[in-house]
Automatic annotation (TrEMBL):
Protein name according to UniProt: Quinate/shikimate dehydrogenase
Gene Ontology biological process: aromatic amino acid family biosynthetic process; chorismate biosynthetic process; shikimate metabolic process
Documented EC number(s): 1.1.1.-
Keywords of the record: Amino-acid biosynthesis, Aromatic amino acid biosynthesis, NADP, Oxidoreductase
CDD domains: NAD_bind_Shikimate_DH
One example GO MF annotation: shikimate 3-dehydrogenase (NADP+) activity
Domain Shikimate dehydrogenase substrate binding N-terminal positions: 6-91
Length: 284
Protein backbone atom coordinates (compact mmCIF):
# COMPACT_ATOMS: atom_id res chain seq x y z
CA UNK A 1 0.00 0.00 0.00
CA UNK A 2 1.40 3.37 -1.09
CA UNK A 3 0.37 6.55 0.71
CA UNK A 4 -0.57 9.80 -1.06
CA UNK A 5 -1.70 13.06 0.51
CA UNK A 6 -3.63 16.23 -0.19
CA UNK A 7 -2.46 19.31 1.71
CA UNK A 8 -4.78 22.28 1.97
CA UNK A 9 -7.52 24.03 3.89
CA UNK A 10 -11.26 23.24 3.85
CA UNK A 11 -10.72 19.96 2.01
CA UNK A 12 -12.92 17.60 4.05
CA UNK A 13 -15.44 17.28 1.18
CA UNK A 14 -12.80 16.53 -1.48
CA UNK A 15 -13.57 13.67 -3.87
CA UNK A 16 -9.89 13.16 -4.65
CA UNK A 17 -9.50 10.27 -2.18
CA UNK A 18 -12.37 8.42 -3.88
CA UNK A 19 -10.86 8.91 -7.35
CA UNK A 20 -7.31 7.89 -6.46
CA UNK A 21 -8.33 4.92 -4.31
CA UNK A 22 -10.57 3.68 -7.13
CA UNK A 23 -7.79 4.10 -9.69
CA UNK A 24 -5.45 2.15 -7.42
CA UNK A 25 -7.87 -0.78 -7.24
CA UNK A 26 -8.58 -0.76 -10.99
CA UNK A 27 -4.89 -0.68 -11.89
CA UNK A 28 -3.80 -3.18 -9.20
CA UNK A 29 -1.64 -0.53 -7.53
CA UNK A 30 -3.25 -0.07 -4.09
CA UNK A 31 -2.97 3.44 -2.70
CA UNK A 32 -4.23 5.18 0.40
CA UNK A 33 -5.09 8.79 -0.39
CA UNK A 34 -5.17 10.74 2.88
CA UNK A 35 -6.35 14.29 3.48
CA UNK A 36 -3.87 16.55 5.25
CA UNK A 37 -6.15 19.42 6.29
CA UNK A 38 -4.45 22.39 7.91
CA UNK A 39 -6.02 25.01 10.17
CA UNK A 40 -3.33 27.58 9.42
CA UNK A 41 -2.57 29.23 6.07
CA UNK A 42 1.00 29.95 7.16
CA UNK A 43 3.89 28.71 5.02
CA UNK A 44 5.44 27.13 8.10
CA UNK A 45 2.34 24.96 8.61
CA UNK A 46 2.61 23.69 5.05
CA UNK A 47 6.33 22.99 5.37
CA UNK A 48 5.88 21.11 8.63
CA UNK A 49 3.14 18.88 7.20
CA UNK A 50 5.14 18.27 4.02
CA UNK A 51 8.16 17.20 6.05
CA UNK A 52 5.96 14.98 8.21
CA UNK A 53 4.43 12.97 5.36
CA UNK A 54 7.81 12.56 3.66
CA UNK A 55 9.18 11.13 6.90
CA UNK A 56 6.20 8.73 7.00
CA UNK A 57 7.08 7.36 3.57
CA UNK A 58 4.41 9.00 1.41
CA UNK A 59 5.17 8.77 -2.34
CA UNK A 60 3.68 12.18 -3.07
CA UNK A 61 0.99 14.72 -2.33
CA UNK A 62 -1.44 16.97 -4.05
CA UNK A 63 -1.52 20.60 -2.96
CA UNK A 64 -4.49 22.93 -2.98
CA UNK A 65 -5.57 26.34 -1.67
CA UNK A 66 -3.80 28.28 -0.28
CA UNK A 67 -0.45 26.55 -0.85
CA UNK A 68 -0.16 26.04 -4.64
CA UNK A 69 2.37 28.82 -5.12
CA UNK A 70 4.36 28.48 -1.89
CA UNK A 71 4.76 24.75 -2.58
CA UNK A 72 6.98 25.56 -5.55
CA UNK A 73 9.65 26.81 -3.16
CA UNK A 74 9.81 23.38 -1.53
CA UNK A 75 10.59 21.58 -4.80
CA UNK A 76 14.04 20.49 -5.94
CA UNK A 77 12.86 20.11 -9.55
CA UNK A 78 9.92 21.68 -11.39
CA UNK A 79 8.18 20.60 -14.59
CA UNK A 80 7.64 22.82 -17.62
CA UNK A 81 4.03 23.31 -16.54
CA UNK A 82 5.12 24.67 -13.16
CA UNK A 83 7.64 26.98 -14.78
CA UNK A 84 4.90 28.40 -16.98
CA UNK A 85 2.10 28.66 -14.44
CA UNK A 86 4.16 29.55 -11.38
CA UNK A 87 2.35 27.15 -9.07
CA UNK A 88 2.09 23.43 -8.35
CA UNK A 89 -0.68 21.10 -7.25
CA UNK A 90 1.28 17.83 -7.39
CA UNK A 91 4.51 16.93 -5.59
CA UNK A 92 6.30 13.63 -6.22
CA UNK A 93 8.82 12.33 -3.67
CA UNK A 94 11.42 10.25 -5.49
CA UNK A 95 15.12 9.51 -5.08
CA UNK A 96 15.36 11.90 -2.16
CA UNK A 97 13.98 14.82 -4.20
CA UNK A 98 10.70 16.71 -4.39
CA UNK A 99 9.50 17.13 -7.96
CA UNK A 100 6.70 19.59 -8.76
CA UNK A 101 4.03 19.32 -11.46
CA UNK A 102 0.85 21.20 -12.34
CA UNK A 103 -1.91 18.81 -13.34
CA UNK A 104 -4.51 21.60 -13.36
CA UNK A 105 -2.65 22.73 -16.49
CA UNK A 106 -2.32 19.29 -18.09
CA UNK A 107 -5.72 18.12 -16.84
CA UNK A 108 -7.50 21.08 -18.40
CA UNK A 109 -5.81 20.39 -21.73
CA UNK A 110 -6.71 16.70 -21.53
CA UNK A 111 -10.33 17.41 -20.59
CA UNK A 112 -10.75 20.08 -23.26
CA UNK A 113 -9.46 17.78 -26.00
CA UNK A 114 -11.60 14.88 -24.76
CA UNK A 115 -14.72 17.03 -25.08
CA UNK A 116 -13.91 19.28 -28.02
CA UNK A 117 -11.27 17.38 -29.99
CA UNK A 118 -9.25 19.60 -32.30
CA UNK A 119 -11.51 22.64 -31.94
CA UNK A 120 -9.23 25.68 -31.51
CA UNK A 121 -10.05 27.74 -28.45
CA UNK A 122 -9.77 30.97 -30.48
CA UNK A 123 -10.52 34.22 -28.67
CA UNK A 124 -11.47 33.60 -25.05
CA UNK A 125 -12.97 35.59 -22.19
CA UNK A 126 -11.88 34.26 -18.78
CA UNK A 127 -13.47 35.49 -15.56
CA UNK A 128 -11.24 34.84 -12.56
CA UNK A 129 -7.44 35.05 -12.58
CA UNK A 130 -6.38 33.39 -9.34
CA UNK A 131 -5.46 29.83 -8.42
CA UNK A 132 -6.82 27.49 -11.06
CA UNK A 133 -7.33 30.45 -13.40
CA UNK A 134 -3.58 30.75 -13.95
CA UNK A 135 -3.27 27.09 -14.94
CA UNK A 136 -6.29 27.27 -17.23
CA UNK A 137 -5.03 30.48 -18.84
CA UNK A 138 -1.76 28.88 -19.89
CA UNK A 139 -3.58 25.71 -20.89
CA UNK A 140 -5.86 27.67 -23.19
CA UNK A 141 -2.95 28.64 -25.41
CA UNK A 142 -2.00 24.97 -25.68
CA UNK A 143 -5.43 24.24 -27.21
CA UNK A 144 -5.39 27.02 -29.76
CA UNK A 145 -6.28 30.23 -27.96
CA UNK A 146 -5.29 33.24 -30.05
CA UNK A 147 -6.18 35.95 -27.54
CA UNK A 148 -7.28 35.94 -23.91
CA UNK A 149 -9.37 38.63 -22.24
CA UNK A 150 -9.11 38.48 -18.44
CA UNK A 151 -11.55 39.91 -15.91
CA UNK A 152 -11.10 39.75 -12.15
CA UNK A 153 -12.19 41.83 -9.18
CA UNK A 154 -8.52 41.69 -8.17
CA UNK A 155 -7.20 43.90 -10.95
CA UNK A 156 -3.59 43.52 -9.84
CA UNK A 157 -3.86 39.73 -10.03
CA UNK A 158 -5.38 39.92 -13.51
CA UNK A 159 -2.64 42.27 -14.68
CA UNK A 160 0.07 40.03 -13.26
CA UNK A 161 -1.36 37.04 -15.12
CA UNK A 162 -1.62 38.99 -18.37
CA UNK A 163 1.99 40.14 -18.02
CA UNK A 164 3.15 36.54 -17.46
CA UNK A 165 1.31 35.37 -20.57
CA UNK A 166 2.50 38.25 -22.74
CA UNK A 167 6.09 37.73 -21.56
CA UNK A 168 6.26 34.36 -23.32
CA UNK A 169 4.63 35.54 -26.53
CA UNK A 170 0.93 35.01 -25.87
CA UNK A 171 -1.68 37.75 -26.25
CA UNK A 172 -3.60 38.64 -23.10
CA UNK A 173 -5.54 41.76 -22.10
CA UNK A 174 -7.22 42.77 -18.84
CA UNK A 175 -10.77 44.04 -19.31
CA UNK A 176 -12.83 46.18 -16.95
CA UNK A 177 -15.96 44.73 -15.36
CA UNK A 178 -18.27 47.05 -17.30
CA UNK A 179 -16.76 45.82 -20.60
CA UNK A 180 -17.17 42.10 -19.93
CA UNK A 181 -20.56 41.61 -21.59
CA UNK A 182 -19.49 43.41 -24.75
CA UNK A 183 -16.26 41.39 -24.94
CA UNK A 184 -18.23 38.17 -24.39
CA UNK A 185 -20.07 38.76 -27.65
CA UNK A 186 -16.78 39.00 -29.55
CA UNK A 187 -15.11 35.76 -28.43
CA UNK A 188 -15.22 32.07 -29.28
CA UNK A 189 -15.00 30.72 -25.75
CA UNK A 190 -16.24 31.65 -22.27
CA UNK A 191 -14.43 30.52 -19.12
CA UNK A 192 -15.39 30.82 -15.46
CA UNK A 193 -12.55 30.38 -12.96
CA UNK A 194 -14.30 32.12 -10.07
CA UNK A 195 -16.09 30.32 -7.19
CA UNK A 196 -19.42 31.76 -8.34
CA UNK A 197 -21.76 28.89 -9.13
CA UNK A 198 -20.57 26.63 -6.31
CA UNK A 199 -23.17 25.33 -3.86
CA UNK A 200 -21.83 27.75 -1.26
CA UNK A 201 -21.65 30.72 -3.64
CA UNK A 202 -24.52 30.23 -6.11
CA UNK A 203 -25.17 32.38 -9.16
CA UNK A 204 -23.69 33.16 -12.55
CA UNK A 205 -20.61 35.39 -12.91
CA UNK A 206 -21.77 36.42 -16.39
CA UNK A 207 -25.10 37.98 -17.36
CA UNK A 208 -27.39 35.57 -19.19
CA UNK A 209 -27.65 38.08 -22.03
CA UNK A 210 -23.89 37.66 -22.69
CA UNK A 211 -24.28 34.05 -23.81
CA UNK A 212 -24.84 33.37 -27.49
CA UNK A 213 -22.68 33.40 -30.59
CA UNK A 214 -19.70 31.72 -28.93
CA UNK A 215 -18.58 28.15 -29.70
CA UNK A 216 -17.77 26.66 -26.30
CA UNK A 217 -17.68 27.26 -22.55
CA UNK A 218 -15.81 25.91 -19.52
CA UNK A 219 -16.60 26.26 -15.82
CA UNK A 220 -13.98 25.26 -13.23
CA UNK A 221 -16.71 24.76 -10.60
CA UNK A 222 -17.81 21.13 -10.37
CA UNK A 223 -20.08 21.03 -7.32
CA UNK A 224 -22.65 21.13 -8.82
CA UNK A 225 -21.55 20.00 -12.28
CA UNK A 226 -24.45 21.75 -14.00
CA UNK A 227 -23.74 25.29 -12.85
CA UNK A 228 -25.85 28.28 -13.83
CA UNK A 229 -22.96 29.34 -16.07
CA UNK A 230 -22.97 26.04 -17.98
CA UNK A 231 -26.76 25.91 -18.12
CA UNK A 232 -26.79 29.33 -19.78
CA UNK A 233 -24.04 28.24 -22.17
CA UNK A 234 -25.89 25.04 -23.05
CA UNK A 235 -29.12 26.95 -23.61
CA UNK A 236 -27.25 29.23 -26.04
CA UNK A 237 -26.00 26.22 -28.00
CA UNK A 238 -22.37 26.22 -26.85
CA UNK A 239 -20.30 23.06 -26.49
CA UNK A 240 -19.48 22.29 -22.86
CA UNK A 241 -16.35 21.43 -20.85
CA UNK A 242 -17.24 20.98 -17.19
CA UNK A 243 -15.39 21.44 -13.94
CA UNK A 244 -15.75 17.71 -13.38
CA UNK A 245 -13.70 17.16 -16.54
CA UNK A 246 -10.89 19.21 -14.98
CA UNK A 247 -11.19 17.39 -11.65
CA UNK A 248 -11.17 13.97 -13.32
CA UNK A 249 -8.31 14.48 -15.75
CA UNK A 250 -6.04 16.37 -13.36
CA UNK A 251 -6.60 13.45 -11.00
CA UNK A 252 -5.64 10.93 -13.67
CA UNK A 253 -2.50 12.90 -14.48
CA UNK A 254 -1.55 13.08 -10.79
CA UNK A 255 -2.16 9.34 -10.29
CA UNK A 256 0.12 8.55 -13.24
CA UNK A 257 2.83 10.82 -11.79
CA UNK A 258 2.59 9.30 -8.31
CA UNK A 259 2.50 5.65 -9.39
CA UNK A 260 4.13 5.52 -12.83
CA UNK A 261 1.05 3.58 -13.99
CA UNK A 262 -0.61 4.90 -17.18
CA UNK A 263 -4.39 5.10 -17.45
CA UNK A 264 -4.94 4.84 -21.20
CA UNK A 265 -8.57 3.73 -21.46
CA UNK A 266 -10.36 6.27 -19.29
CA UNK A 267 -13.93 5.41 -20.35
CA UNK A 268 -14.51 2.53 -17.89
CA UNK A 269 -12.88 4.51 -15.09
CA UNK A 270 -15.07 7.52 -15.77
CA UNK A 271 -18.21 5.38 -16.02
CA UNK A 272 -17.53 3.55 -12.78
CA UNK A 273 -16.70 6.74 -10.87
CA UNK A 274 -19.84 8.49 -12.12
CA UNK A 275 -22.03 5.54 -11.17
CA UNK A 276 -20.49 4.86 -7.77
CA UNK A 277 -20.50 8.48 -6.63
CA UNK A 278 -23.66 9.60 -8.43
CA UNK A 279 -21.87 12.18 -10.55
CA UNK A 280 -24.74 13.16 -12.83
CA UNK A 281 -24.99 15.89 -15.46
CA UNK A 282 -27.90 16.77 -17.69
CA UNK A 283 -25.61 18.72 -20.04
CA UNK A 284 -22.79 16.29 -20.91
Amino acid sequence: MQHIGLIGQNISASRSPSLHNMLGKLKSFPVSYELQELDSPEVSAFQERLSSIIDKGFIGTNVTFPFKQVAVDSADEVSDSVQKVGSTNTLLFKDGKIRAFNTDFTGFIRGYRKRLGDLSAGKVLMIGAGGVGRAVAFGLFEVGATELFISDLNTAGAQALAQSLNAIGYKATVVAKDSVEAIAKQVDGLVNCTPVGHYKTPGNPLAASAFGGQKWAFDAVYTPIDTEFLKAANHAGLKIVSGFDLFFYQGLDAFEIFTGVEVQDVTPVLKQFREKYDVVSTLI
